[in-house]
Design goal:
336 residues, mainly alpha, 14 helices, 0% strand
């Protein structure tokens, strides 16, 4: 099969798979299969049975939130890898997830007991992600490895402050709530939570989609990109702002979910190519498949005890991260 045919087949699958996975996520759960009723889902008919209420009140919000967060994290990972020209770059390795978590935990610590209690945790998450990414970009000017090391350092510092907040939490209930939220989950969310996330996710994806041409040019080198009229400062600011908005809001709503931005672009690159202009929208669709699928798997294979989606993505993503790291290290040493 030619490269063009593979690429065409990949795009067709990426257009179809989110719909299939979303439908399965709505239908399957601990209480078994519930056939999704489109009229109830669209609000045309009111739910008339307990099964329809479960689907509308429990499964629809978590499916929508998982798809939006997956799309944001996948696209952010692809854009950051294009910006830094490093396949290890993604929101969690660059510390954005940890600093967003620190911002939201700080808001909870100072009185916003519910994670979704108004806009304060979301705003604090956005601010945390923006400050963290700005620090990483300022400290990691030496190149790809410097950027990753800066991200690890900033992320570790943010994690230490989160631990400090947990240690001095005002009550055991607050500690339990912070720990429960930090694991990362889309369970027990409502349509209001999905509504809170939607505008931030849409803005983040819109900004990232607009970076494609600039990131493609940057792949040819900074000098070439400048000669093609790309304003690199503006491009960096756009990617950082989009990542801060997307990751901050996602972390504020669902807690810490890592590695999606690493797994998805890495898995799709052989099928859609290395150009960020293609990889960003492809990773958007890929993330909208991976996260609901991980959440669905956590619901079904836990045998009554749900595996949080943040745990599921970490179990998949950590080996992928180590594989990429070892492959690059061997390549740099010239052992193959």
């Amino acid at each position: 099969m030619s490269d063009a045919a593979i690429r065409r087949a990949a795009w067709i699958l990426l257009a179809i798979l989110p719909l299939i996975v979303g439908w399965a996520s709505l239908g399957y759960g601990p209480s078994g299969w519930i056939a999704p009723d489109p009229w109830v889902l669209l609000g045309i008919d009111a739910p008339s049975t307990a099964s329809e209420i479960v689907m509308l009140e429990l499964r629809l919000p978590r499916t929508l939130i998982a798809m939006m967060i997956g799309a944001v994290l996948g696209a952010c990972g692809a854009a950051l890898q294009g910006l830094t020209r490093n396949p290890l770059a993604e929101p969690s390795t660059l510390g954005a997830s940890s600093t967003a978590a620190l911002g939201a935990v700080t808001a909870i610590y100072f009185g916003h007991a519910g994670v979704l209690d108004g806009p304060a945790p979301a705003a604090a998450g956005l601010a945390g992600a923006a400050i963290g990414l700005a620090l990483v970009l300022a400290l990691g000017r030496g190149g790809g490895l410097s950027l990753i090391l800066a991200g690890v350092g900033v992320g570790a510092l943010a994690t230490a402050f989160v631990s400090l907040a947990l240690t001095f939490a005002p009550s055991p209930y607050a500690t339990l709530e912070m720990v429960d939220w930090l694991i990362g989950s889309v369970a027990d969310r409502t349509l209001a939570d999905a509504g809170l996330l939607a505008p931030f996710a849409a803005l983040s994806l819109l900004l990232l989609t607009g970076c494609g041409a600039g990131l493609d040019a940057l792949g040819l080198g900074e000098r070439t990109a400048r000669s093609m009229g790309v304003r690199l400062g503006r491009l960096r600011l756009q990617v950082v702002a989009a990542t801060a908005i997307g990751v901050g809001s996602a972390t504020a709503v669902a807690g810490g979910i890592g590695f999606v931005g690493l797994i998805v672009p890495h898995a799709l690159r052989p099928f859609v190519g290395h150009r960020p202009g293609r990889l960003v929208p492809a990773s958007m669709a890929g993330g909208a498949v991976l996260l609901p699928l991980a959440d669905l798997a956590g619901r079904l294979i836990g045998d009554g005890t749900e595996i949080r989606v943040g745990v599921a993505t970490a179990l998949i993503g950590a080996p992928v991260f180590l594989h990429i790291l070892l492959t690059r290290a061997r390549a740099e040493r010239g052992t193959w």
